[in-house]
């Protein structure tokens, strides 16, 4: 579950500091260290899953919760008029951190 070499697992464990947006039993959200928009945060499962391509049928409820949390946190972060989401998957998809995450970003307004 916890991968000792994964930076996002270390963030969840508090071994690397992060600017936390949200946390519950299954999910963790924090601001991206290198934002591409005025508001840019990531939502990740606490369970280590390498990428969306590595999620299984057993993860469907978790994926649903992750996706469902995005609009709620986006509104809380001031993205009242909408927001963008991205899930980069695999090297060819631009994924750099191999712990599943959804980017949520946009301009407050
Ligand atoms: P990917 O390209 O894998 O979809 O995106 C990884 C994201 O994680 C990048 O936007 C990058 O800025 C962010 N990131 C990488 N390392 C850290 C870190 O240690 N802390 C935070 N808050 N974000 C990170
Ligand atoms: Zn991890």
Please state the structural category. alpha+beta
- Our measurement of the CA-to-CA distance between the termini, rounded to an integer number of angstroms, reads 38 Å
Main beta sheet: 5 strands, antiparallel
Fraction in helix:
10-25%
Number of discrete helical segments: 2
Lateral arrangement of strands in the main beta sheet: 1-2-3-5-4
Which cofactors or ions or other ligands sit in this model? Answer: guanosine-5'-monophosphate, zinc ion
Tell me the overall shape: globular
Strand content: 15-25%
Q: Summarize the helix and strand pattern as letters.
A: HEEEHEE
Q: Tell me how many strands there are.
A: 5
Mean pLDDT equals 97
Low-confidence stretches: none
Provide the gyration radius in Å.
Answer: 13 Å
Q: Care to describe what's here?
A:
The protein has 109 residues and is of the alpha+beta class. It has helices spanning 7-12, 60-76; strands spanning 20-23, 27-31, 39-45, 84-86, 102-106. A 5-stranded antiparallel sheet has the order 1-2-3-5-4, covered by helices on one side. Strand 2 and strand 3 (39-45) form a beta hairpin. The longest helix has 17 residues, at 60-76. 19% of the residues are buried. Bound molecules: guanosine-5'-monophosphate (5GP) and zinc ion. Guanosine-5'-monophosphate binds at residues 7, 16, 18, 30-34, 88, 94-97.
